[in-house]
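Folds abound. Consider this:
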Amino acid sequence: LTVLFIGLVFHCIYLFSIFDIYFRTPIVHGMTPHRVEADAPAKRLVLIVGKSFYDLISGDGLRADKLFESNFRAPYLHSLIANNATYGISHTRVPTESRPGHVAIIAGFYEDVSSVTKGWKMNPVEFDSVFNQSRHTWSFGSPDILPMFKHGARDTSKIETFMYDSHFEDFSKDAIELDKFSFDMFDELLKNATNDHILHERLHSDQIVFFLHLLGLDTNGHTYGPHSESYYKNIKYVDKKIKELESKLNEFYNHDRKTAYIFTADHGMSDLGSHGDGDPDNTRTPIIAWGAGINFPVKALEDKILEDYSKTWPASKFKRNDINQADVAPLMQASLIGIPFPVNSVGEIPFAYLNSSEKFKSLSLLTNAIGIFLQFETKKKSKNQTDFFFKDFKPLISLDSNKFQKHVETLIEFGKYNESNKISLDIIEKSLEGLKYFQTYDWILLRTIVSFGYVSWMIYSTLSTLELYGNPNLNGKGENKTLKIVIGLFLSCVLLLILWLKTSPIQYYIYASFPIFFYFKIIQSRIQLRFNLIKGIVVPLSVYCGGLIFLVGSYYDRFYLAFGCFILSFWSFLKKSSMLLSVSWFITLNLLAVSFFRPVVKIENVFDLNFGVLCILLTSALGLIYIKRVINHYNPFCIIQIIVFILNSYIVSDTIQNLSSKAGLPLLNQYLIFSLSLLFWNRRSIENYYDRTLIIFLAFATPYHTLTISYETQFYSFSFQLNAVYRLTTVFNPFIMGTLVSFKILIPFFLISSILSLISKKLSLPPFCLFLIVISSVDVMTLIFFFMVRDSGSWLEIGTSISQFIISGLFIVFLFILYVLSLLLMPLNDLKFKLE
């Protein structure tokens, strides 16, 4: 068990290596906020009332095409595009989730990919934002978004939140009520100002922000899809309320025309009602800006019509000005309401949206460039102070920020705006490249250490397995290992010295300690493999490694799995098993191969669900017949489990009908499904392993069917769609929903682990024998996946690369846990075996 324990510790620790290499936070601190030293367009004649506020309206989960492709869905917003507004598409980055999207809009900063784990719970943003720099902010909407900006602010008192309770987010109810709450609370705020002198004064000060977070579109999209009537109805409602909101504000501020508006979204939505990846429907969101400081619409030239995606839109006759999502923050902060740029912003001011002088635009871009360059300079100084072997970023090695600023300011003073803008844009581009350079500064060193760690582990675990279970030639005892020890000590000292000179964090030393430890364990091994022994295992070892590479391919194309099942279907014929067993094996494997050609992403399909029920019942019936034939009786509890499964299937079907008709989740159904899905059986009372195997299968079949939406039950595959959990809960709760989906995914593995433990017992194999053989070689896949981890691209690509490495890296941990669980589910000591 020593090797097993070392392997568990090693894999758990090395799992975090990708986050130290690929996903370290790029946030830097210590910069001074900068603002444009000129009157902001949205203030205009500041002396008049002194109010210049900004109204930011965010539609959660709104697709650009659904808003722009039809006039009747949003008539008021389309009239703005035609008369008063500048519009375009805001291109989001992955992950296309609520937290990263709102952070990009409000802070001008793209959080690293690992930040998606912070989503849907109160995690304060750890960097500067629009709200932070404003004089006062009022925010309305979801408790999933508003608190993280309030609690992350320097002064929380200047950010007020008006939120509904989390139980208000019920997928079985009309989601328009979520948006209605935001608009109603906004109306109430204006109404209260007539009786509250302090509030009235605050509302009439400058540099203030209203933030309305509208969750209804996202909720309706998840529940009914973006092509549904509910989704379109929600768009119409939002359009109507925006018109009313603008009218009320004009009246409240006596039509002073000092209000700027932006309508946008944090992410889009796929046709299946999901988001998160880099699908264009998820990354393209609408942006419409109008009011103080915003340009009026410009007619589109015939030869400038954009791609087919938008040329059929009614709005396509006007110029479409696309921007990146992070560009919204500098637009509304420095260029409209005159507050300082967020110190962590990497957005670039979109000139096409501004209705201001060329001088103001150039000064804004200069301030933009200074802010991003200061981030680069801060990161550079931090790395220079901690790295003895520091290598500077060459494109900016000789740039002095003060000289650069004075030079560009001189050009602006002489009216050379194009030249000054070109220099500022060049500095922005190089500063962003420099930030990326220092973000990946230690990649080569860390990747080398991790690679040696995995290779040395594979050698060590293989030799240890051969010592425990093999019969190798143990002639290495008298070998002189002094030279190997000296070389190992020298290389270890060099590696530790390099880490010390680079002022590396403690985890780097931990990563480095494993290849050092494994090296010395390897040279102490008693194994001495002779040439003839090595020659004898070359062919099977090559086939085995080829199989591992084949499995790597299966992570990217399911054809590999289908082809593998087809090849394995002939195995029973080669083993000369009974004809019935061989034919059954052949048919089962080929049916499984067919399943890999079905769609990966599943939508709810009642026919497939019912067919899955029939498959479970047919399998159970065949199992009972087989048990009756072999041991002449079966446990009555098998019949009870079948009845429970049938009853649960009927209630699930009734619940689906209620949810589809928007009748909500019946409370009785919810309790019955939950009760029937609970796993229960008396393990000790079922001594025959045939009965226990069938009962475990049926006990898991009930909750598995509850959590499926399509053909999963037919093949014990799984999907990640949230629709299935609505049969147990419709109130948005990420922890409960995530737990239910995870439980569903684990069910097939629980069953397999139980059967494998049974097979090991019947074959009288030593404990952990097969286990150690597998983990000695599976890290070939882990190492391949380690170099294939991505920190850019779509969220689907990034998330897939991370999950592939984690699944492979945690294989040893996963197998160990499953083995222990299988013993709990099916204790082997008390079972009666009948060996055929």
